[in-house]
Automatic annotation (TrEMBL):
Domain B12-binding N-terminal as annotated: residue spans: 1-91
Source species: Pseudonocardia hispaniensis
InterPro entries in alphabetical order: Cbl-bd_cap, Cobalamin-bd, Cobalamin-bd_sf, Met_Synthase/Corrinoid, Meth_synthase_dom
Name recorded for this polypeptide: Corrinoid protein
CDD domains from the UniProt entry: corrinoid_protein_B12-BD
Keyword Metal-binding tagged: yes
Length: 221
């Protein structure tokens, strides 16, 4: 296979969520001497962006996003150490966790895959993450963005508890706070003082990039 055929195949197989095919083509590309960043930025990321676009148009639904995300995740497992060796730049660090009292992680995991595919370095704290664990992780990793995920209406108040904990630790101004999950709305995000909200994985990537560029934009003289 030529490099062009491998890139096209990676794009097509990620789009349909063929995890074994994606992994096979990833290996074939590496054996041909193709760089991991080429496979990522010229095939895998564009494919996942197309998945997101189809989801927004209503052509794809959550199951299609999940299987495409899982297919890409398999390739990322193989490419991640190689990308680290090449020093491939990440666009930012995103610390993620499902809030205390909540054990749901399917949505969070999909968001993580989409963020990683978009070039973010993702640190996932898992589920049932207490405010003090978020604080400790922010102090340790110094992320650009922290994401609080909740699937239950009963655990949504933890957003405010987490933000209060960041303020108490003097960390609130140093990190962008994003919230999300099935019952969460923009109005609720505003009410608890979050910087950003997104309704789904694709929107999370767009909003995260937007918030990051706004934070990094030079202040007008």
């Amino acid at each position: 296979m030529t490099p062009e055929e491998i890139l096209q195949g990676l794009y097509d197989q990620t789009l349909v969520g063929n995890a074994p095919g994606v992994l096979e083509l990833t290996e074939a590309g590496l054996q041909l001497g193709m760089g991991p960043e080429t496979l990522l930025f010229d095939a895998l990321i564009p494919s996942l962006e197309e998945v997101g676009a189809r989801f927004e148009r209503g052509d794809f639904f959550v199951p299609e996003m999940l299987i495409a995300g899982r297919a890409m995740a398999g390739a990322m497992e193989r490419l991640r150490p190689l990308l680290a060796e090449t020093g491939a730049a990440t666009i930012g660090t995103f610390l993620m966790g499902t809030v205390k009292g909540d054990v749901h992680d399917i949505g969070k995991n999909l968001v993580n895959i989409m963020l990683e595919g978009a070039g973010f370095h993702v640190i996932d704290l898992g589920v049932q993450v207490a405010p003090e664990r978020f604080v400790a992780a922010i102090e340790q990793h110094k992320p650009d963005i922290v994401g609080f995920s909740a699937f239950l209406t009963t655990t949504m108040p933890m957003f405010k508890a987490n933000i209060n904990a960041l303020q108490k630790a003097g960390l609130r101004d140093s990190v962008i706070v994003m919230v999300g999950g099935a019952p969460v709305t923009q109005e609720y995000a505003d009410a608890v003082g979050a910087d950003g909200y997104a309704a789904d994985a694709s929107a999370t990537v767009k909003r995260a990039k937007q918030l990051l560029s706004e934070r990094r934009a030079p202040i007008p003289a």
